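Exercise 7. Given the encoded structure of a 382-residue chain, write a plausible sequence.
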């Protein structure tokens, strides 16, 4: 029995549980204990098992569900839809605008988001169901608050899209089954001779689409004098109802229909945040590489990759995924030759467990805002 216990997994789990307890024990100690227990047990099992994909997928989809449930609870339980839309219509959009209040809930704006995601900068009052943000008091302090954001971008690069982003859970949930129902060959390059033709990679313009969307978003934010982060905010979408319906339409096509039919995360191929993060993949600590001596070119990895980061063309030429790799690890677990791993740059030191450990810590820290809202709502209900 004791021989089956993985010491490395135990130590990692204890660190995560300790941090989770410290992070969440205010305002309710029992809540800190629950998050610590869940975080610790989850960490133990995901570090211990070789097949991490099932747990990874459950975690990633859960983040989307928490995000959605939080949003729905705010709109439908405490307030009602029409008052929320009224509030959204009057909502001001300025750089570094603090959050605005509707009843007892402060909705985050540019400044408040960065404070609360840092965690522990907000004090929650269970008696009133509201919370107060007291830090940072100056612009300098605000810039210090941005350090964790910069660190997240630098450390994770596009691993953020594989582990942390709440929006990514929807297309991930839609990718089900083994069957590629739509091949979408018109978006791919054809190579080979007339007798042996195959589709090696997606076309360049398809791959670059996200950079076009990023450029258009920056331009739009600049012309409309809106913080770029607000373009990702559901409140801004609701302010302009036609925009809201356009985004819902894009979500249905790119986050639901296309992922379900093609087994790829198409939403993440047009996402401007994903494009921004992809630019940092080159300096990320986590590099997926294929051992060319072991690889027999079966291309199972390319079939399994949700991001077209590994394609037959890429495997044959570079033996490493391109900048769209989200470090999810599917290819690692689906390679029959055990030829793929994640390493520190330019070394043979494996670091997949380190990525998972850091991702769980980041998730616990970054979701503070949502947990506070849920706590507020739960306290109001009971
Ligand atoms: S590409 Fe965009 S939506 Fe997809 S996971 Fe990354 S940040 Fe989230
Ligand atoms: S699954 Fe493994 S063996 Fe097959 S092509 Fe990919 S790296 Fe090579
Ligand atoms: S290359 Fe591998 S780790 Fe990267 S996104 Fe594709 S399946 Fe995930």
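Solution.
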């Amino acid at each position: 029995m004791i021989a089956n216990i993985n010491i490395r997994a135990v130590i990692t789990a204890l660190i995560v549980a300790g941090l989770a307890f410290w992070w969440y024990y205010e305002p309710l100690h029992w809540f800190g204990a629950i998050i610590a227990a869940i975080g610790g047990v989850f960490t133990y099992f995901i570090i211990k098992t070789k097949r991490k994909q099932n747990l990874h997928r459950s975690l990633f989809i859960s983040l989307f569900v928490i995000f959605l449930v939080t949003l729905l609870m705010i709109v439908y339980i405490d307030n009602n839809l029409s008052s929320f839309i009224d509030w959204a219509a009057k909502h001001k959009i300025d750089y570094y605008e603090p959050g605005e209040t509707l009843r007892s809930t402060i909705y985050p704006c540019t400044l408040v988001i960065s404070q609360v995601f840092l965690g522990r900068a907000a004090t929650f009052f269970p008696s009133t169901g509201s919370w107060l943000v007291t830090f940072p008091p100056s612009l300098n302090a605000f810039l210090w608050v941005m350090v964790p954001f910069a660190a997240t971008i630098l450390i994770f690069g596009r691993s953020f899209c594989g582990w942390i982003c709440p929006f990514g859970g929807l297309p991930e949930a839609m990718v089900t089954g083994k069957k590629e129902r739509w091949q979408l060959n018109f978006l791919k390059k054809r190579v080979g001779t007339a007798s042996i033709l195959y589709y090696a990679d997606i076309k360049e313009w398809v791959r670059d689409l996200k950079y076009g969307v990023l450029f258009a978003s920056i331009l739009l934010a600049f012309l409309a004098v809106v913080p770029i982060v607000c373009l990702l905010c559901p409140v801004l979408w609701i302010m302009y109802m036609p925009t809201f319906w356009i985004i819902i339409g894009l979500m249905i096509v790119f986050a639901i229909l296309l992922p379900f039919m093609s087994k790829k995360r198409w939403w993440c191929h047009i996402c401007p945040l994903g494009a921004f993060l992809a630019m940092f993949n080159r300096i990320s600590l986590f590099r997926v590489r294929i051992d060319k001596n072991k690889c027999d070119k079966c291309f199972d990895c390319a079939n399994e990759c949700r991001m077209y980061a590994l394609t037959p063309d890429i495997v044959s030429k570079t033996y490493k995924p391109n900048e769209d790799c989200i470090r999810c690890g599917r290819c690692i677990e689906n390679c029959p030759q055990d030829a793929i791993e994640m390493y520190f740059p330019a070394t043979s030191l494996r670091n997949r467990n380190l990525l998972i450990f850091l991702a769980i810590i980041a998730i616990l820290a970054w979701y503070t805002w949502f947990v506070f809202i849920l706590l507020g709502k739960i306290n109001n209900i009971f």
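Remark. Residues 1-49 form one domain. Students should compare their own answers with the one above.
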